[in-house]
Design goal:
The chain is an alpha+beta fold and 182 residues long. The protein has two domains: 78 residues, 2-Layer Sandwich (GMP Synthetase, Chain A, domain 3); 67 residues, Ribosome maturation factor RimP, C-terminal domain (SH3 type barrels, Roll), CATH 2.30.30. 31% of the residues lie in helices and 34% in strands. The protein has four helices and eight strands. It has a five-stranded antiparallel beta sheet with strand order 7-6-5-4-8. Helix 1 packs across helix 2. It is globular and about 55 Å long. This is Ribosome maturation factor RimP. Pfam families: DUF150_C, RimP_N. Required for maturation of 30S ribosomal subunits. InterPro entries: Ribosome_maturation_RimP (IPR003728), RimP_C (IPR028998), RimP_C_sf (IPR036847), RimP_N (IPR028989), RimP_N_sf (IPR035956).
């Protein structure tokens, strides 16, 4: 799910090694828009702590631009956008469902499962290649094959906002700015 279309997958193959060389993982690649002005959106994060700084986005953007300029895989004009996945991030790797266990998510499948394609509930990790999720109004934990997902993302909740604030505070504690005296 890092890349939906064949074009996205081809771009991912070009971009992923560049990100990995910088200690980053690609969360998602999407080429969006019509035939005129398209937008290539790349979401990335550090493999170590699932975070990314603005400077790292800029460095990745410059490196990816060089590769894309040389390979020229996108016809016409496009805008390159490199960013963090954000707080209500897409869940694109099986490991994301373990990492964000206990948080609320929305899942969409590419096929019907018991009469529906959309699911909302609290992530309960993984079981093999299945996503475990405690669905609203259901007693048993549901298992949804990861391969069947077409879209998945965290739901913006107070709990998720609190976790994001704690992560920012910890990051700021680890990178204090120097104060100067006048």
């Amino acid at each position: 799910m890092k890349a939906k279309t064949a074009e996205d997958r081809a771009l991912l193959e070009l971009i992923e090694p560049v990100a990995e060389s910088q200690g980053l993982e690609i969360v998602r690649v999407r080429l969006m828009g019509g035939t005129q002005r398209r937008r290539l959106q790349i979401m990335a994060e550090r493999a170590a702590d699932h975070d990314i700084a603005v400077e790292e986005c800029a460095r990745l953007s410059r490196a990816v631009s060089e590769v894309l300029d040389a390979a020229d895989p996108i016809s016409g004009e496009y805008l390159l956008e490199v960013s963090s996945p954000g707080i209500d991030r897409p869940l694109t790797r099986l490991s994301d469902f373990e990492l964000f266990e206990g948080y609320e998510a929305r899942l969409e499948t590419d096929r019907m499962i018991e009469g529906r394609k959309r699911f909302k509930g609290v992530l309960a990790g993984t079981d093999g290649d299945n996503i475990a999720i405690d669905l609203e109004g259901e007693e048993d934990t549901a298992l949804i094959p990861f391969a069947w997902l077409s879209d998945a993302k965290l739901v913006l909740t107070d709990e998720l906002l609190k976790a994001g604030a704690e992560k920012r505070a910890a990051r700021n504690d680890n990178n204090p700015t120097e104060e100067t005296e006048d």
